[in-house]
From TrEMBL:
Residues 4-287 form the Aromatic amino acid beta-eliminating lyase/threonine aldolase domain. Belongs to the threonine aldolase family. Its cofactor is pyridoxal 5'-phosphate. This is Threonine aldolase. One of its GO terms (cellular component) is cytosol. It holds the Pfam family Beta_elim_lyase. PANTHER family: L-THREONINE ALDOLASE, L-THREONINE ALDOLASE-RELATED. The keyword Lyase applies. It comes from Pedobacter cryotolerans. The modification N6-(pyridoxal phosphate)lysine is found at residue 200. It comes from the Bacteria.
Amino acid sequence: MRIDFRSDTVTKPTAGMLDAMMSAKVGDDVFGEDPTVNELEKKLADMFNMEAALFCPSGTMSNQIAIKCFTNPMDEVICDQTAHVYRYEGGGIAYNSLASVRLLNGERGILTPEMIEPEINDDNIHYPNSSLVVLENTVNKGGGKCYSLSQIEPIHHLCAVKGLKLHLDGARLFNALVATGDEAKDYGKYFHGISICLSKGLGAPVGSVFLSSNEIIKKATKIRKVLGGGMRQAGFLAAAGIYALDHHVNRLADDHAHAKTLALALSEANFVSSVMPVETNIVLFDVTPNYKVEQVIKALEAKGIFCNSTSTKTIRFVTHLDITATMVDEAIEIIKKMNI
Ligand SMILES: *Cc1c(COP(=O)(O)O)cnc(C)c1O
């Protein structure tokens, strides 16, 4: 059995999702004429109480478009030092938006108003203009840790008082909603922009959606075109997103339960020194100093378990739609018997 914990992006469309894709009504989305893309955009905007939405090919593109919309050249973006927008988007903030970045040391990527406030620059000719705060929920590098809305509210308040925009990289926002019990409809009022990935835990093959105001989405549509992200009969892909929103949200709780069971088994393994507490579908664990991560990854791979490292001592397991309860049981048996 091949058990692939490398990422929640490795899922393949289910039969039901493929049916929905095959029967999608499509049109030219650059002309705004794809009914299925329009339906997906409206569905998500309504769900989160935002005015409008834009379907993008990737989460990177939707985040980069957001940053471009919310900054001017020479501005500064404030985010955690582990943020995807900073670490894993190829230096896009500098390249696309000509902005600098102020990195904070959050608690597993979670920021507080007390951390942010002293890092907001005064209006002074020497300083870059602090214009945008980016939060990530769940935090990928923080082992899937979540913000609750009660933690976001005071950050929103600070940004409002200081005149900064607030964007949410919500690549795994539905995981956070399922884990915290917060409601999607309450998110819109706290953020100027939200990006959501359909191709992570939700199990669609492609796509991300950027949510914001009508005015910002108009600007975002132009930027998406310039970046080469204007897609034509994209309704086939949007149909997968709609299907995922209808069928794959509640089941994220299974992924979270699987991650917790795996974490428990890993915490007892001789090659593991510590496991980060699990909140959603990501398990991060440190390898005991007498082993190398490559060695552990290879040994697991030889038994059919695939995973990645996130640092020289940390390994990541991600649970998702294509990880069944049987696979979790099998993985636990393998981990128990492992003798590296
Ligand atoms: C995956 C991910 C993204 C977007 O990635 P793409 O591969 O470009 O879709 C953005 N933010 C976070 C936290 C992610 O995990």
